[in-house]
């Protein structure tokens, strides 16, 4: 039993809940006070180094989410497996947790190799992936700011594969995709906040991903959004240290192996 049962379908929630969560969670970060002592970059640095205005970022994210919603609707329609009573049997909590873990591994694997190839292929980087790196200093609501083709290949197809291979139901996918969206937003928030559960539990966090967005780190830390295992296995892992700046906030310093 979930709170939306009887009001909207699991498929509708699976399509639109991640979009709503993205803007609520990302918007929360956007509306926070300056919090200079927790920032990985100063706001002045962000204004000077970022190459795209906020309005363009918002439009780009909305376009990607439109495509995601269309693909999700088609995916749920094709995989629908309702019983004669119009309901779908939900597996046990343990099975759902296993499916979510499998989906996390699938998504990480897909995104690591596609992401890395988009850096190594000069044509793809110049014409597609470089759009995401126009946000040299990332911020929360820019997490899904990508070229539309990259959004389709990296995020939308990655999510579809995770859903299909894990075998999760539409109801389970609501929890998984909302969690994945929150993690992705958090990885781009640019803040190192005390008590942040994502930063405490995951080595692949906002500081880890910040290394990738800086000029000296674009050949490292491709892993997203959950684990750093592929970086470690394939030699693209760049460790870091957090150093407190005199003017407040933190500096993320790469540590060469």
Q: Main traits of this protein?
A:
257 residues; mainly alpha; two-stranded antiparallel sheet; globular; aldehyde oxygenase (deformylating) activity; transmembrane helix; lyase
| Average predicted confidence as pLDDT | 92
The proportion of strand residues reads under 5%
Number of strands: 2
Query: N-to-C terminal Cα separation, in Å?
Result: 50 Å
Shape: globular
Order of helices and strands: HHHHHHHHHHEE
Give the structural class.
mainly alpha
Total number of helices: 10
Number of domains: 1
Instruction: Indicate the low-confidence ranges by residue numbers.
Output: none
Reported for the largest beta sheet, the result is:
2 strands, antiparallel
Helix content: 55-70%
Cα Rg: 19 Å
Side by side, the strands of the main sheet go: 1-2
GO molecular function: aldehyde oxygenase (deformylating) activity; iron ion binding; oxidoreductase activity
EC number: 4.1.99.5
Subcellular location: Endoplasmic reticulum membrane
Membrane topology: Multi-pass membrane protein
């Amino acid at each position: 039993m979930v709170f939306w049962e009887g009001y909207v379908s699991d498929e509708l929630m699976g399509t639109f809940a991640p979009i709503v969560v993205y803007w609520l969670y990302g918007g929360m970060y956007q509306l926070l006070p300056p919090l200079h002592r927790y920032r990985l970059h100063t706001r002045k640095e962000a204004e000077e180094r970022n190459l795209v205005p906020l309005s363009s970022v918002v439009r780009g994210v909305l376009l990607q989410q439109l495509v995601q919603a269309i693909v999700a609707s088609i995916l749920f329609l094709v995989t629908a497996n309702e019983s004669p009573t119009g309901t779908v049997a939900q597996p046990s909590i343990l099975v759902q947790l296993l499916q979510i873990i499998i989906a996390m591994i699938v998504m990480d694997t897909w995104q690591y190799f596609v992401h890395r190839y988009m850096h190594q292929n000069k044509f793809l980087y110049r014409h597609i992936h470089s759009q995401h790196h126009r946000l040299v200093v990332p911020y929360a609501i820019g997490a899904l700011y990508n070229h539309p083709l990259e959004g389709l290949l990296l995020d939308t197809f990655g999510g579809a594969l995770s859903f299909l291979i894990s075998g999760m139901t539409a109801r389970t996918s609501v929890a998984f995709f909302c969690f994945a969206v929150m993690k992705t937003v958090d990885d781009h928030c640019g803040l190192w906040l005390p008590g942040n559960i994502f930063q405490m539990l995951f080595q692949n966090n906002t500081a880890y991903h910040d290394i990738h967005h800086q000029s000296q780190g674009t050949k490292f830390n491709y892993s997203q959004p959950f684990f750093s295992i592929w970086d470690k296995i394939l030699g693209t892992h760049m460790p870091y240290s957090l150093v407190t700046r005199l003017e407040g906030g933190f500096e993320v310093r790469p540590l060469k192996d």
